[in-house]
Design a protein that fits this description.
By secondary structure, the protein is an alpha/beta fold. It has 10 helices and 12 strands. The protein has a domain of 169 residues: P-loop containing nucleotide triphosphate hydrolases (Rossmann fold), CATH 3.40.50.300. It has an 8-stranded mixed β-sheet with strand order 6-7-8-3-9-10-12-11, with helices on both faces. The structure holds iron/sulfur cluster. GO terms for molecular function: ATP binding; ATP hydrolysis activity.
């Protein structure tokens, strides 16, 4: 459904480039929820923008390509590549951005935000028919149709996020990208949002990509996931394998730092900080924090190694 081929993207700032995404290569399959995890600043939100083709200065794609595999109006297969993915926005691929309050127009009622978005990308329909379809869709998602009359500030944070998810999925896109969909929400609301995303995915049988720094979100909802570190995708695999048999030292440290019921041992964070993406080091980018680092690690970038069915990681220890 969605394929990334050795994609690198960077921010062009006055004093050079910040290489936020480096040679990322993976695919998202049909009918799955794929998670992208990693510390703040590792490039996961930039990667999501690259996947959606939301490339605005100073962000630019340095190399590689993104492919969205879809079908045209006649049902024939079509591939949209970066630079043309916007032609398939909302219908084939949609995006739930981070920060529901900031992305909705504060002076426009929710109903008009639906009308404007759908009309802009897919022509004006009869308004009454469209409103009826929107109301029915909100009901299916267990959202009160009254939200259509509200302004964004009249809705709670959780309700705004639900409205954004409804808007992003109204045209039944085959791929939905969601950036930190549960951030800044309390635990009960978070659970509701995850349940909603999961139900929508099951209903549409589409593909979802969820970016979150919260490993609990990935554990609860994703089928496969990728771990990003300093702009690179350092491990990809089925979610249960990532949690139970992590292979990359960074992933192992991330998993070991998670609290578990019945485990009262003192949890430790990962010492050190990620390298600057303006001037990333040669070799393995995790070397300065890795307890297993050798001279080879500091000099030579590790290749991707297959470690199981659909599971791979980039570390010299695995060779
Ligand atoms: Fe650690 Fe070396 Fe593996 Fe990097 S390549 S994670 S430094 S062992």
């Amino acid at each position: 459904m969605l394929k990334l081929n050795q994609v690198s993207a960077q921010y062009n700032i006055l004093t050079g480039y910040v290489k936020a995404v480096d040679k990322v290569d993976f695919e998202v399959r049909k009918n799955e929820i794929f998670g992208i995890a990693g510390e703040s600043g590792c490039g996961k939100s930039t990667l999501l923008k690259v996947m959606y083709d939301l490339i605005n200065y100073p962000l630019e794609i340095a190399s590689g390509s993104v492919e969205v595999h879809a079908t045209d109006r006649k049902g024939l297969p079509v591939i949209y590549r970066n630079g043309e993915i916007h032609k398939s926005w909302w219908k084939d691929i949609s995006y739930v951005p981070q920060g529901a309050m900031h992305v909705m127009n504060p002076v426009t009622r929710v109903r008009n935000q639906f009308f404007d978005t759908i009309s802009k990308f897919h022509g004006v329909k009869n308004k009454k028919t469209l409103e009826h379809e929107i109301t029915e869709y909100l009901r299916e998602l267990e959202l009160p149709p009254d939200v259509l009359k509200a302004y964004p500030h009249q809705l709670s944070g959780g309700m705004r996020q639900r409205v954004l998810i409804a808007l992003a999925t109204f045209l039944h896109p085959s791929i939905v990208l969601a950036d930190e969909p549960t951030t800044a929400l309390d635990v009960v609301v978070q659970r509701g949002i995850l349940t909603m995303l999961s139900q929508v995915q099951k209903k549409l049988k589409n593909s979802m990509v969820i970016v979150s720094h919260d490993m609990g979100v990935h554990y609860q909802i994703t089928n496969r996931m990728g771990i990003m570190y300093a702009g690179q995708m350092i491990e990809v695999g089925p979610t249960d394998r990532i949690f139970n048999e992590p292979q990359h030292p960074y992933t192992k440290m991330l998993i070991n730092a998670l609290p578990r019921i019945g485990d009262n041992s003192q949890k430790e964070g990962i010492p050190g900080t990620p390298p600057s993406l303006k001037n990333p080091p040669a070799g393995c980018r995790f070397a300065a924090r890795c307890p297993h680092a050798t001279e080879l690690c500091r000099l030579v970038e590790p290749d991707r190694v297959n470690v199981g069915e659909g599971h791979y990681a980039s570390c010299h220890l695995l060779n």
